[in-house]
Design goal:
By secondary structure, this protein is α/β, with parallel strands linked by helices. 48% of the residues lie in helices and 13% in strands. The strands form 2 sheets. The chain has an 8-stranded mixed β-sheet with strand order 3-2-1-4-5-6-7-8, with helices on both faces.
């Protein structure tokens, strides 16, 4: 194999979220030819204007990325790349099964433009076998190239904790794997060029896939154990924190504290392995039980809180109680998204609702849920133009959803225009 040089590789990062953006910034900082790609044009426009609404990277790193690299939502601008690193989200459906649609869609997109010698690396969290059994056949079909002869694949799980400014991407050891030895050397070279903590090569892609879900499942199980103990000790009028402090005096005790489990990984990843496990005919009892304990923890916290407040209403300011509940719901939303917050509210207060849920939904939300139910895809909104004076602009957007003809509407804000388009779409759907 020839000597490896960074000048020999043009890297495309597919997906510029909390995983892809820091990765693109790191490769750019180290002098690689990097193109960042995201299907959301609005996200690209924000980044080009040096705005990262999620604060995934520092202003300095974003400025360097914008200056030295290309950011685009145009597929034609990534056709010249030879290394594609896919970092799209892998969420779960309402029934807690893996939603691989973003991964499948990105594989189809990349498969349509790869060439001989291309390497496709996946960083998205999946269950063991997804890269080989689902993604690779798509790449083969779309590219008409022969796997492991004309193109190859790799897997390197993301291990970033969103919001952690200490354990940043370069300080976390990188697990890497590939479909063949030659590709593994290239992938190891690429990541070792940007990761200070070093790399760990696995014997197969499936091992690397399993390693990632195992990391988060282990934490989920241990947190569930502490949460269950906390509920028990509370009923026995024992301080859980005092128990943990005493137990942690032993060198091999894992010091975890009770609390809510959400976020991008821990509350989601177990369902991926549980799905694969059940496909193989094995029932993962501990994982299932741990998920139930942690899923139910938010309801238990609120119930205890409300019970306490009812007993001490003469001592507690009602506004403090309201603010506390509001903060809890806000934390659930920020950590786990709208679905988790909605689920919590419904499970806790649905008996007291006297308003039909359908009347509480705005048109965009209702259309999104409908589209996901029917075709598992989100409505596609695009900003067409902005016109008028700066103090009174008019935004025009297009909407493509389900099998409807493209809808074009305007509004004084982008949100208003999109809401108008969604209302028209829902009207067409109801009429038909």
């Amino acid at each position: 194999m020839k000597n490896l040089n960074k000048e020999d590789y043009k890297i495309c990062i597919v997906g510029l979220g909390y995983v892809g953006l820091p990765l693109a910034a790191r490769f750019s900082l180290k002098g690689f030819d990097v193109t960042g790609f995201d299907i959301k044009e609005e996200r690209i426009n924000q980044l080009v204007n040096k705005i990262d609404i999620n604060n995934d990277i520092s202003d300095t790193n974003l400025e360097t990325l914008v200056k030295n690299s290309k950011l685009t939502s145009n597929i034609d601008e990534i056709k010249g790349c030879d290394i594609f690193i896919i970092t799209v989200p892998t969420p779960i459906n309402d029934d807690k099964t893996p939603d691989l649609e973003p991964l499948i869609a990105s594989s189809k997109l990349v498969g349509s433009i790869i060439k001989k010698g291309s390497i496709v690396i996946y960083e998205s969290t999946v269950y063991p076998g997804v890269t080989d059994e689902i993604c690779t056949p798509i790449l083969e079909e779309k590219s008409c190239l022969i796997f492991n002869k004309e193109f190859s694949t790799g897997y390197s799980p993301e291990r970033i904790v969103p919001g952690d400014k200490v354990n940043t991407i370069e300080k976390i050891k990188k697990v890497v794997s590939a479909s063949n030895e030659e590709t593994l050397k290239i992938i190891s070279f690429l990541y070792s060029s940007i990761i200070e903590a070093g790399i760990h090569e696995t014997p197969s892609i499936k091992v690397a896939e399993a390693a990632k879900v195992t990391e988060n499942i282990q934490r989920d199980v241990n947190i569930a154990l502490i949460n269950e103990m906390h509920q028990l000790y509370t009923s026995l009028d024992i301080s859980t924190l005092d128990v943990i402090e005493a137990a942690s005096t032993k060198w091999n005790f894992m010091k975890l504290t009770p609390g809510l489990v959400g976020g991008h990984c821990i509350s989601i990843d177990p369902y991926y392995l549980m799905h694969k496990s059940e496909m193989s005919g094995y029932t993962p009892h501990i994982m299932q039980a741990s998920r139930k304990v942690n899923d139910d923890m938010s309801k238990w916290v609120v119930e205890k809180f409300l019970k306490f407040s009812s007993k001490n209403n003469d001592k507690m300011n009602i506004s403090i109680l309201a603010d506390s509940v509001e903060s809890l719901i806000g934390a659930l939303y920020l950590d786990g998204g709208f679905k988790n917050a909605k689920k919590f509210i419904k499970s806790t207060w649905s008996p007291y609702f006297d308003i039909e849920e359908k009347n509480m939904q705005d048109p965009k939300t209702k259309l999104q849920e409908l589209s996901q139910q029917k075709i598992k895809k989100l409505p596609d909104y695009k900003l067409i133009k902005k016109e008028g004076p700066s103090h009174s602009p008019i935004f025009t957007v297009s909407l493509k959803v389900l099998n409807l003809k493209k809808i074009i509407t305007s509004g004084s804000t982008i949100r208003e225009a999109e809401k108008n388009a969604a209302s028209i779409a829902l009207k067409h759907i109801n009429e038909n």
